[in-house]
Automatic annotation (TrEMBL):
One matching Pfam family: OB_ChsH2_C
Name of the molecule in the record: Nucleotide-binding protein
Gene3D superfamilies found in the cross-reference section: 6.10.30.10
Domain of life: Bacteria
Organism listed in the record: Protofrankia coriariae
Signal peptide span: none
PANTHER family (alphabetical): BLR3430 PROTEIN (PTHR34075:SF5)
Domain ChsH2 C-terminal OB-fold: 60-123
Residues in ChsH2 rubredoxin-like zinc ribbon domain copies: 22-57
Length: 138
């Protein structure tokens, strides 16, 4: 069973602190923030560092590589996902450090494992943004 190829891509609600992130996704670029005061990489986009509360955050391009931290096979979605078949909801740990809630697509959930290498893919929302999801790395 391969899942996730036909997941919906709902349009995100863009906030001032997330605008640069969503704009970058439309170009196939995954951004994280890096605190210039303490060096922590931060995701999701925000105004203050999650470690030291500095406002000195700069946008940096992430590698797009991550590992599966945890996952579940969702068999019954809600809202935009209510008509989807089974799909994988996962927490991945980006190479830069932060963890991201996402979907694993183009995969057989039976072969997916914690610690597995995954790579970002972008699913266009059709509204100037794209949802970062991950697939098993080649
Ligand atoms: Zn910091």
């Amino acid at each position: 069973m391969t899942t996730g190829a036909e997941l919906p891509a709902p349009v995100p609600e863009v906030q001032p602190e997330t605008a640069a992130f969503w704009e970058a996704t439309s170009r196939g670029v995954l951004l994280v923030q890096r605190c210039t005061a303490c060096g922590t990489s931060v995701w999701y986009p925000r105004f203050l560092c999650s470690n030291c509360h500095s406002s000195e955050l700069k946008q940096v391009e992430a590698s797009g590589r991550a590992t599966v931290y945890s996952f579940t096979l969702t068999t019954r979605g809600i809202l935009e996902y209510k008509d989807c078949g089974p799909y994988v909801l996962a927490l991945v740990e980006l190479e830069e450090g932060p963890k991201m809630l996402t979907n694993i697509v183009e995969c057989d959930p039976e072969t997916l494992s914690i610690g597995q290498s995954v790579q970002v893919v972008f699913h266009d929302t059709g509204a100037g943004s794209a949802l970062p999801r991950f697939r098993p790395a080649a």
